[in-house]
Write a structure and sequence with these properties.
By secondary structure, this protein is of the alpha/beta class. Helices cover 42% and strands 12% of the residues. The protein has 47 helices and 25 strands. Strands 15-12-14-13-17-18-16 form a seven-stranded antiparallel sheet, sandwiched between helices. Helix 41 (855-860) links the parallel strand 21 and strand 22 (877-878). Helix 8 runs antiparallel to helix 20, helix 21 packs across helix 24 and helix 32 (717-725) crosses helix 33 (727-735).
């Protein structure tokens, strides 16, 4: 039994602060519990710093109230740090003060003016969210970045973000028209470019706004020559406090040059007015392969000179990791293996044009330049289709996260990853950079924007090691000197953050000017102190003066880290914060906007939980083994006592469990997280140990036993349907924690199969078949839910198999065990799964083909069953589409008597994210029948196995359904055949919209006569 765990965090903000905020009219949310503070203690950097609390304002008024309360004497010592998507690589949003997160509530697009090409948005709007809204107008917000599906506009402004295509489109600051800011004293200002007349009026003001403008204007005038000398002439010029661009080309004074990239050290951003551009009419990508990465870098200079839109370079390490990622299924054709040698680097060249003729002309000009023989070029491909172009860019965007997807504790980490030098110096600079890392014996990954002179480099370190930790300082100092040698900057793209210690050295005699600016905006140093500049003598943060994540990881130990499914290796890239409701990861975050309820949040909580156990010298693996040897009944009195004991109320395990309870166990993170953080896997391990100390709710017992109880329920079908189908019965079930239960059909699968003469498969039966019959034997492994609640799917499969000339069998009703695994009954799961795996293994060894019916249940055999018997299970249980795609020659459709309807498929989240070729195989099968198949763009339906059947989850479940499924189902008509592969998905549709939609097997069976 694990002990009660107490967080090591100091008390949150000063007593009475949150109460004073509410009293002053603050309408947002506030969080000070240890769990939330743990989640907000990390970003995508190597650092860890726990905040005093987190605030979630609802608008500019809340920001003003916050600033004014912090100006009161009782709270004068408190500081605040704005936070956007939380994906910064240099600790920009980490603080020991208060975090201000505008992404939860301040995420509205306020205005789109397509005539003026201006959008006005709140600071928490996500970039891709904005561009989706702009697409119908033929417009887009140009600055591109790899985190565009979770990066907020406020965060982009604060870091002056940019990425691929910056030579064409520039940085965020190039597209900011106006900023609505709130200063540290609570005053508000719309910052826009000013004419000389307007500026003169403001300079006369005797308030904070006047002082700010006088300070900045005075420095810009008095230090003009030094500014021109110190600030680099780069595409990636200085971010934040950018004195070199105070004056726009037309001469207007623009304070936004100072604010963009200031990382929340000068003001809080409430809203932004943004300049928009027309969407490119036509695009193509030329994908060039090289046998040497340096050759790719050298060639990039030639390609850039051809006036292409952008050139992106990726090294062999990133390319190799991409080949193991979910994205490769969509792009592998564009990066074929070469017989001569493997590709050790690629260049992705973007071509844009206003029409197809111009596009082909530009493509011809670029590819003609390849005529000059370059022995290092292995070949090239061209992507013209929008979906292919997007897929290739997705691979490039995932590069940051992919570098974390390696085995072992030594992993690429960010701290010198965004240097920028003049493009003509890049190849020589990188050669010295690589020599520096090679001399230290380090591996690394490289990718980046070579057209802009920026290459992202992540050395591989294990920051729990005493010999690796000093390398952060040694390498950083060496790289600073190297960038200086080649006329570049350390911080070309990802901001300064903890690296601010190098600011005084870089700016030299201009650093006091930055201090004057900081003092004019924030004289009390309340806004993100320690970053970029201090108002007077206060110190700036140092790269080795902020706690490293490695300190926590060292306490946990490498063996424990490795045993908990990458929870401790989450690098904070935040891919799970994807705003798009149609993407599979992560449904609980999309429904709640609570970062605790995301894979990153749960991984952070799990990591802290493991550390607290380590502090008490407890090995959770040994504790689990001990638990499985004992009797749960014997410990029940103690668990009930612990559940009622008020001393346990502050157990940190409760906060971890709260986050785990909201997980749908859909495994989208397992397939889509670049680092492969698998929440369902470590969640099960946590729940097993948590409920060794506390009593389980009744619904857990019922759900875990569902596969064994369903046959008994079928025998008492009228009684069960009375409980599930009447208001009185549903009320009783809700008391047990369950709801939205489906009804049992009149005849179960077992009886129908017997009527059809379908035998139950055994090893002896299959082995006894003649060889030709054995080759035609197909065993349908029907899960308990499909078999008892939707047996028609299995009957369609049986019918279809016979039409295909195959001999169908049913598998015995062995337990799959998914429900036990989801709820942490791991001992029982392993015992039952081992029996089931042996049975399936025997059938496969006898020569039968095994086919599952429900994707979520079938994929359990490929994931949760791994490791059984030491080496996993060799038998493959095919998904229906895999089976059909392998037997296309046996399929033939009947001629259609009338106009064919539109066929639309809503796939299950688990198969979309964990079986990447699944949807393509369904399209292949329908194509073989002469029918085009549309794959609907949907996210999670919200049911996810038993999740949506639990009372506590029902509101979240229905909210998720409304996000993307509801509109598709509502659009179903007589001209549309809408199908769903998941049983739980079809059950959700029936529960909410009272519609029955078929499994594709039923439709294919009907189409084949």
């Amino acid at each position: 039994m694990i002990p009660r765990l107490t967080s090591h965090l100091a008390p949150a903000s000063p007593a009475g602060f949150f109460e004073r905020l509410v009293e002053a009219g603050f309408s947002g949310d506030a969080e000070s519990r240890a769990g939330a503070r743990t989640v907000y203690a990390t970003d995508n950097s190597i650092y860890q710093l726990e905040p005093a609390g987190i605030l979630f304002p609802r608008g500019a008024d809340d920001l003003k109230i916050l600033a004014k309360v912090l100006s009161e004497p009782a709270f004068s010592g408190m500081t605040i740090t704005p936070r956007g998507g939380g994906t910064g690589t240099n600790g920009q949003s980490l603080t020991s003060g208060l975090v201000v997160d505008c992404s939860r509530h301040m995420n509205k697009i306020l205005e789109i003016d397509p005539v003026r090409r201006i959008a006005r948005v709140q600071s928490g709007v996500v970039k891709d969210q904005l561009n989706r809204a702009l697409k119908p107008y033929g417009l887009f917000f140009a600055p591109e970045l790899s985190t565009s599906n979770r990066a907020t506009i406020g965060g982009m402004v604060s870091t002056d973000a940019c990425g691929q295509g910056s030579c064409l489109y520039g940085k965020t600051s190039n597209h900011v028209v106006g900023l609505r800011i709130v200063l540290a004293d609570g005053s508000e200002w719309w910052s826009r470019a000013l004419s000389e007349t307007a500026l003169a009026e403001i300079l006369q003001r005797q308030d904070r706004i006047g002082e700010i403008h006088r300070t900045v204007d005075g420095i810009a005038r008095e230090k003009r020559e030094r500014i021109e000398t110190v600030f680099p002439k780069l595409n990636r010029y200085m971010t934040g406090y950018d004195l070199a661009h105070i004056r726009q080309p037309d001469g207007r004074f623009d304070l936004n040059a100072i604010l963009c990239g200031s990382e929340g050290t000068l003001a809080m951003i409430a809203e932004a007015e943004l300049n928009l551009l027309p969407l490119p009419a036509h695009a193509a990508l030329i994908n060039i392969r090289y046998n040497d990465f340096n050759a790719a870098l050298e060639d990039a200079r030639t390609l850039t000179a051809l006036k292409v839109a952008s050139v992106e370079t990726v090294d062999e390490k990133v390319l190799g990791l991409a080949k193991t990622d979910i994205v490769w299924n969509d792009i592998g054709q564009f990066f074929p293996d070469d017989a001569a040698s493997p590709a050790n680097g690629i260049n992705i060249v973007e071509i844009l044009a206003d029409d197809e003729t111009e596009l082909e002309r530009k493509l011809g000009e670029v590819t003609a330049a390849f005529g000059n023989a370059n022995p290092d070029r292995l070949g090239h491909t061209i992507a013209r289709q929008h979906r292919d172009i997007e897929a290739i860019w997705t691979m490039r965007k995932r590069a940051v996260g992919l570098l974390g997807n390696v085995d072992g504790p030594v992993r690429p980490v960010p701290f010198v990853e965004d240097t920028a030098v003049p493009p003509e110096n890049l190849a020589a600079y990188i050669r010295e950079f690589r020599a520096l890392l090679d001399s230290a014996g380090l591996s690394y990954g490289m990718f980046g924007h070579v057209d802009a002179g920026v290459l992202h480099v992540r050395p591989a370190l294990d920051l729990t090691r005493d010999d690796h930790t000093p390398l952060v300082r040694e390498i950083s100092d060496a790289v600073v000197a190297l960038t200086k040698k080649y006329g570049g900057v350390l911080w070309g793209e990802h901001g300064k953050g903890v690296r601010s210690e190098y600011v005084p050295e870089f700016f030299g005699d201009l650093y006091p000017c930055l201090q004057q600016i900081k003092r004019a905006f924030d004289p009390q140093n309340k806004l993100n102190p320690g970053k970029i500049a201090a108002p007077s003598v206060e110190p700036l943060l140092k790269i080795d003066g902020v706690p490293l994540r490695g300190g926590v990881d060292r306490a946990i130990g490498n063996e424990i880290r490795a045993a908990f499914d990458n929870a401790a290796y989450c690098n904070g890239n935040g891919a799970c914060f994807d705003f798009d409701e149609t993407s599979p990861m992560c449904p609980s975050y999309k429904a709640t906007r609570d970062r605790r309820f995301s894979p990153k949040g749960r991984a952070a909580l799990m990591r802290e939980w493991l550390r607290l156990l380590a502090d008490k010298s407890i090995d959770p693996r040994a504790e689990a083994k001990r638990l499985r040897r004992g009797s749960s009944l014997a410990t029940l009195p103690k668990r009930i006592f612990n559940s009622l004991d008020p001393r346990n109320r502050d157990d940190f395990s409760h906060e971890v469990r709260e986050a785990m309870d909201t997980c749908l166990a859909c495994k989208a993170c397992t397939g889509q997280c670049p680092v492969k953080v698998s929440v369902p896997a470590f969640r099960s391990k946590f729940l097993e140990l948590y409920y060794s100390r506390y009593a389980r709710p009744l619904k857990d017992l019922l759900v875990a036993a569902i596969e064994t109880s369903l046959p008994w329920m079928a025998q008492a079908r009228p009684l069960y349907n009375l409980m599930a189908g009447t208001e009185a019965g549903r009320h009783v079930m809700r008391l047990s924690g369950l709801t939205a239960l489906p009804l049992l059909p009149p005849r179960p699968l077992k009886a129908e199969a017997r009527r059809l003469g379908v035998a139950v498969a055994t090893q002896e039966l299959i082995e006894g078949l003649p060889e030709q019959e054995k080759k035609r034997a197909v065993v349908f492994v029907a899960d308990a839910f499909t078999a008892h609640f939707d047996p028609g799917v299995a009957l369609s499969a049986i019918s279809l198999a016979r039409k295909m000339g195959l001999i169908p069998y049913l598998a015995e009703g062995k337990q799959n065990g998914k429900a036990m695994h989801v709820h942490g009954y791991l001992g029982r799961f392993e015992a039952n799964a081992t029996k089931t795996a042996r049975y399936l293994q025997d059938l496969a060894a006898a020569g039968a083909t095994l086919v599952g019916l429900d994707p979520s249940m079938t994929l359990v055999y490929r994931s949760e069953y791994k490791g059984l018997w030491g080496n996993g299970v060799e038998a493959t249980v095919l998904l229906p589409q895999e089976w059909l795609a392998a037997n296309l020659d046996r399929l033939s459709a009947q001629p259609q008597k009338s106009a064919s309807p539109v066929y639309s498929l809503l796939p299950h989240c688990t198969e979309r994210s964990n079986a990447p070729s699944a949807t393509a195989q369904w399209k292949t099968v329908f194509k073989a029948l002469g029918i085009p198949l549309e794959i609907a763009s949907t996210g999670c339906c919200g049911m996810a196995g038993t999740f949506g059947h639990e009372v506590r989850n029902r509101a979240t479940s229905e909210a998720l359904y409304a996000m993307s499924w509801s509109s598709h189902i509502a659009g179903t008509s007589s001209e549309t055949v809408t199908m769903a592969t998941g049983y739980s998905c079809r059950s959700q549709v029936k529960a909410i919209d009272t519609k029955s939609i078929p499994h594709p097997l039923a439709i294919i069976d009907a189409l084949t006569g």
